[in-house]
Design goal:
heterotrimer, A mainly alpha (290), B mainly alpha (318), C alpha/beta (246), B: 318 residues, mainly alpha, two-stranded antiparallel sheet, 4% strand, globular, C: 246 residues, alpha/beta, Rossmann fold, six-stranded mixed sheet, four-stranded antiparallel sheet, 10 helices, disordered N terminus
Chain lengths: 290, 318, 246
């Protein structure tokens, strides 16, 4: 049965849009893992709380862009606090403990959201309404805006890491935290900063994603899981890899949902993960080390 | 990791606890009776997970899959086989869990640590999605309901379960499982598992076929987890996808950590502690009791990583 | 090299009876030594006696279970390494450990980018280092991992110099290097000494250590067994052979 070309094109664009949001979430996660070996189980919850802060700010001010900025700042601060109180004491211990601690954190954050905001989903209104016609369909401008904004934020991160003193500090600490300290780099604070950056990026994704679906307390787990898959498929700690993997997986899922229901389309990403782990465990887009 | 306690002290303690658990349904009100039975079932599940986490050093975030398969396997038996037979239900459930355990076992030999953990998580989510969406077979979101089988030994006797006999049956199964697992972990096989946990490359270098040991460990773990699932199905007379969802796997890991990994009895204590804590907090904090529970858990991870039993053992050894 | 000077009354770095463990292994059994301002002190000993561990303890990378480390008279035991780097202790580890994915320039910047250093000072430091190590100037935009072993060693030393340290802890700088490079390292040590930078030099290369140092400690099995001015040992190196088994 032939699928009409327009549908494939629409799904391609959808896949890229979702992929960019996922890339925003996953880049924070892979940065955090690369520098501190922390598997942040609560990353999806940071995404979710970012979306909620966006909701609250929207209600208070009616300005989407202010909501985006506020969410980023609030969650970055929260991320810093979390890192200092729960993760710093665990530095150097068995990696299992950080997974457990962040898992406990995800429980606390999820239920906090449930407590404060209730079980009913909230909505963030789109800041850019209006559609353009793609063949016979209306495609919302907002979705294109999401992709561009995400790309801009990731691009900004890349530039920050590549140039600038703090970018060097982060990259040095990621490669060899002991020698970074021996060079006078305040490693504990670099860790805090990176966690805060990761949290801020997750929050941005949450706010950008908000207008597409409702914001509710349980939305975090799916994103945590998908972000993990992306980080593994893209290569742990590999920023470019996770961006490529995000788009790759989102495209596959978008195409899959032409045939099966969205709930079942997630299996695609699971299968990709398993295949990657079996055949190219260092990452799908990373050349296998000899 | 053999206990410094003398065998006499152990068996004395064991007998006392067992005695208390036997008397429990006779003295406790209905709600608490079921509560204790549930603690035993979750405890068995956590114990099965301890084989991997505490003894072989592989963390599984997907034990809900084995549990759920045991549950649905039993459901399948109780709904399709006439008359509903307890032993057939046990067989179906355990076999279902074992089949999946083979898959997972294969991956355990190929992947390290956290990659294995993520894969188990992913596997259990795959099962969740399948069970949730395959409504014709699994009842989808609503799950399956069925009636409790009778406790019957062909040719000897047959009696329906009442809540006391069910409790004792569960207690018997869990106790036997505990003793079996204890025997296994203290056997040479168990020692090799622990050696794998401490230092896998060295164990391999000494000459042990690490892969084979891991496979057996996973199968063992999956089997007992499935058994717990069957018990749960028989106790509650329903099977639902919620129990295959990741949260269950997460709670199992919590039980292990809170109770103390690598102690076998720790996970049961951990399950009891967590369930009691949850029950208590839900009375005071009504809806958002998981917040204090979660905070306590985080604090335990940071300050008491050996878990309750670990701390108690340390006190004893002094 | 100038004649031996006895340890000054107020040494720059003073290690006092430190005991250090790695897990259950008792590596240092009460090590004591001193380095005076501007002094080059050698630390000799066979593999595994605890020389590197001693340096790591001074640098705060390993915490001693007992004993004190002092710097300019202050207790620094247990302080974090990044603090120590900032107050003037430079560290050049065994196997160099330069940042392989950073360029030569970026490697240098990890030490150069500090508070309170003017742009002019930074440029002056860079110029000085490029003068000492012209090869690094040529390769300034190349990734550290693409440099040869000898070049990486130079980068590791240059990087530590960016901190303008009062003392550099040098761990086996000539290991695995060709004789030509070894002699270059010898000249660098000399140049640093002329500038007044103290050096605690751990080495297996006995002749180099004898030439470059003013005092020498010899370690065996986690303790200092012998301590003498270098001149004395140059005249009679029997003691060294006894402990090094060379």
């Amino acid at each position: 049965m032939a699928i009409p070309f327009e549908q494939i094109l629409i799904q391609t664009i959808n896949g890229i849009v979702t992929g960019m949001i996922l890339a925003l979430v996953a880049s924070g996660l892979t940065l955090i893992f690369g520098i501190m070996d922390v598997v942040n189980f609560a990353h999806g919850e940071l995404f979710m709380l970012g979306a909620y802060v966006g909701v609250v700010t929207m209600v208070a001010t009616g300005n989407f862009w202010l909501a985006l900025l506020t969410a980023i700042i609030v969650l970055a601060a929260l991320g810093a606090i979390i890192q200092v109180t729960t993760l710093r004491p665990l530095l150097g211990r068995d990696p299992l403990t950080t997974i457990l601690a962040t898992f406990g954190l995800s429980l606390v954050l999820q239920n906090y959201a449930l407590w404060q905001f209730g079980p009913v989903a909230r909505k963030i209104p789109e800041p850019i309404t209006g559609h353009f016609t793609l063949f016979y369909l209306d495609y919302p401008w907002y979705r294109i805006a999401i992709a561009l904004l995400s790309a801009a934020i990731i691009g900004g991160l890349y530039l920050f890491l590549k140039f600038g003193t703090y970018g060097i500090w982060i990259r040095a600490t990621t490669q060899d935290r002991v020698m970074a300290a021996a060079m006078g780099i305040p490693v504990p604070w670099v860790h805090t900063a990176v966690f805060a950056i990761g949290a801020g990026m997750a929050a941005a994704s949450g706010v950008l994603f908000g207008p597409l679906v409702g914001v509710n307390h349980a939305m975090g787990l799916d994103w945590t899981l998908k972000a993990f898959i992306v980080v593994v498929v893209g290569g742990m700690g590999n920023l470019g890899g996770s961006i490529a993997a995000s788009i790759f997986i989102s495209l596959l899922e978008a195409y899959a949902s032409l045939w099966v229901s969205p709930a079942q389309a997630v299996i695609v990403s699971f299968v990709v993960l398993i295949l990657t782990l079996l055949f190219r465990p260092t990452g799908l887009f990373v050349p296998t080390p000899k | 990791m053999t206990s410094a306690r003398s065998p006499l002290a152990f068996w004395a303690g064991f007998a006392i606890v067992l005695g208390l658990l036997i008397i429990a349904p006779l003295v406790l009100p209905e709600f608490w009776r079921r509560f204790v039975t549930e603690i035993l079932i979750w405890g068995l599940l956590a114990m099965s997970s301890d084989i991997l986490i505490g003894y072989t050093g592989m963390v599984s975030f997907g034990h809900s899959a084995f549990f759920g398969l045991g549950m649905y396997g039993a459901a399948a038996a109780l709904l399709t086989v006439r008359p509903p037979n307890l032993w057939v239900a046990l067989a179906y459930g355990i076999v279902a869990a074992a089949v999946v355990a083979v898959f997972v076992a294969y991956f355990s030999t190929r992947l390290r640590e956290i990659y294995f953990g993520i894969t188990t998580l992913v596997f259990s989510q795959i099962f969740y999605v399948i069970i949730f969406t395959w409504t014709e077979v699994t009842g989808g979101e609503n799950g399956l309901t069925f009636s409790r089988p009778t406790l019957s030994v062909p040719g000897l006797f047959s009696m329906p379960f009442d809540s006391n006999t069910l409790h004792w049956f569960v207690l018997a199964v869990v106790t036997v499982s505990y003793l079996v697992l204890r025997r296994i972990t203290q056997s040479p096989f168990g020692m090799v598992l622990q050696s794998i946990r401490e230092n896998e490359p060295r164990t391999r270098a000494i000459g042990y076929a690490v892969e084979r040991y891991k496979i057996v460990a996973v199968m063992l773990s999956g089997l007992f987890a499935g058994l717990a699932g069957v018990l749960y199905a028989v106790q509650n007379r329903f099977a639902a996808p919620d129990f295959v969802f990741f949260v269950v796997s997460g709670e199992v890991v919590i039980f292990n950590v809170m109770g103390g990994v690598g102690t076998l009895v720790g996970p049961i204590v951990g399950a009891a502690f967590f369930l009691l804590l949850r029950e208590g907090c839900s009375r005071f904090f009504t809806e958002y009791y998981l917040i204090p529970v979660g905070l306590i858990f985080i604090a335990m991870v940071i300050f008491m990583p050996q878990g309750l039993v670990g701390v108690w053992r340390r006190r004893l050894n002094q | 090299m100038s004649g031996a000077a006895p340890a000054t009354a107020s040494p720059l770095v003073s290690v006092e009876s430190i005991h250090t463990f790695y897990g259950k292994s008792h590596i240092l059994h009460g090590v004591s030594l001193q380095v005076g301002r501007g002094e080059v002190v050698g630390l000799l000993g066979r593999n595994g006696v605890g020389k590197s561990t001693t340096l790591k303890t001074v640098m705060g990378l390993v915490r001693p279970s007992q004993g004190e480390v002092r710097y300019e008279g202050q207790h620094i035991t247990g302080l974090q390494p990044h603090r120590l780097a900032r107050i003037g202790i430079g560290y050049v580890p065994e196997d160099r450990r330069i940042f392989r994915l950073l360029t030569v320039m970026e490697n240098l910047r990890t030490g150069l980018d500090r508070h309170g250093v003017t742009e002019d000072r930074k440029q002056a430091l860079l110029d000085k280092v490029y003068e000492y190590f012209p090869v690094l100037a040529d390769r300034r935009n190349q990734a550290g991992g693409t440099l040869s072993g000898g070049e990486q060693q130079m980068l590791a030393i240059a990087r530590a110099m960016m901190l303008e340290p009062k003392i550099i802890l040098l761990d086996e700088p000539t290991e695995g290097l060709m004789p030509r490079m070894v002699s270059q390292i010898r000249h660098i040590i000399e140049a640093l000494h002329r500038e007044g930078v103290a050096i605690l030099l751990v080495e297996q290369n006995v002749p180099l250590t004898l030439e470059a140092s003013q005092r020498i400690y010899i370690m065996e099995k986690g303790v200092v067994r012998h301590h003498a001015p270098a001149a004395e040992l140059r005249a009679n190196d029997a003691v060294i052979h006894q402990y090094m088994g060379v």
